Amino acid sequence: MSAVAATLQRAWLSRGLLAWVLSPVSALMWSLVATRRLAYRLGWLRRHGLPRTVLVVGNRIVGGAGKTPTTLALLTHLRATGWCPGVLTRGYGARHAPGDHALILDAESAPSLTADQTGDEPLLLWRRTGVPLAIDRDRVRGGQALLARHPEIDILVCDDGLQHLRLARDIEVVVFDERGQGNGWLLPAGPLREPIETQPLPGLSAAPLVLYNGCPPSTPLPGFRGAATLGELQALANWWRGVRTEDRPSPADSLARPYLALAGVAHPQRFFDGLRQQGWHITELPLPDHADMATLPWPDQPCDLIVTEKDAVKLAPDRLARERPLTRVWVAPLDFQPEPAFWQALDDALARARRRPAA
């Protein structure tokens, strides 16, 4: 995280001097957000529907609040309950810059695509679930392209699409973490993308479902809780192949051999703290969110390296065998499980959405 970003993150927790200095810009931001939503509500700006149920996952606060683990949990649940999902995503950081077409990530295209082309989170979603994705800033266009290639899809999950109002939706899942609403102000004086009490646009099959990621409720909004846990380590090559084995280290091994922990995520300290809670003795190697790994950021010396799944998609095993042959790399999967009441509320909303006429 850059020094500027770190300073803003601290300022967003309270209404201190920096926040007050930036507050006039936040007032302008509020007016722009309100005007845009009003334009969609009154039909001055057109919303576009897709001929499938659309479920949007997003957050009102900037930074990683747990959208990707939530999306993974939703995709697993949807498939287990008989749905055939597809994913719409912007593909933050992707070098693919579509002009008039979406990039489709599926079984046919995946062998020829890298995280540089797709963005790290879409490739992670694909490797964990095998669900086809459309990568496009324009989610409507992406959805049309994905359905043309995969007409069997009966529900579209839009990852980080809460503010993409052009796409009409049936269900919204709003994710918060322990930061809650911060100081309650909009960018840049606070961390909010839109006001905490923002009312949804018409068309939802149920009120937005608020989900608190690994923490007690951190805003005044009523919602559901979920628990995030780090799973057992997997060798990088096995993780890439989707193979689970029992050959893995234990926390006691980190007392006898150097262990590094690398995290290029929005809040790397959460990852490091989670490893230490499991008993690992680690040296922290925090990186900026979506770090591209063009240059491997650890020395070529004997050690073990524990990485997040988001970073693992950018570390091809054959490359590491050439450039870091003395390093053993382990992947720590992150699993997120909402409470049963959330799944019941979601299934009820899905049932209502399914009974409605297609767009």
SSE order and pairing:
Blueprint: H1 3-11, H2 17-42, E1 53-58, H3 67-80, E2 85-89, E3 103-105, H4 115-118, H5 120-129, E4 133-135, H6 139-149, E5 155-159, E6 171-176, E7 209-213, E8 224-230, E9 234-235, H7 236-241, E10 259-263, H8 268-277, E11 283-286, E12 303-308, H9 309-312, H10 317-323, E13 327-332, E14 334-338, H11 340-355
Parallel strand pairs: 1-5, 1-6, 2-4, 2-5, 6-7, 7-8, 10-11, 10-12, 12-13
Antiparallel strand pairs: 3-4, 8-14, 9-13
Helix pairs in contact: 3-5
Task: Provide structural commentary.
There is one protein chain. The longest helix is centred in the first third of the chain and has 26 residues. The protein is built from eleven helices and 14 strands. A nine-stranded mixed sheet has the order 3-4-2-5-1-6-7-8-14, sandwiched between helices. Strand 10, helix 8 and strand 11 form a beta-alpha-beta unit. It has 359 residues and is an alpha/beta fold.
Task: Give me some keywords for this one.
33% helix; alpha/beta; 5-stranded mixed β-sheet; 9-stranded mixed β-sheet; 359 residues; single chain; globular
Q: Which geometry do the CA atoms define?
A: globular
Count of alpha and pi helical runs: 11
Beta-strand fraction estimate: 15-25%
The largest sheet has its strands arranged as: 3-4-2-5-1-6-7-8-14
Calculate the terminal CA-CA distance, rounded to whole Å.
42 Å
Instruction: Quickly give the structural class.
Output: alpha/beta
Mean pLDDT: 92
Tell me the major beta sheet. 9 strands, mixed
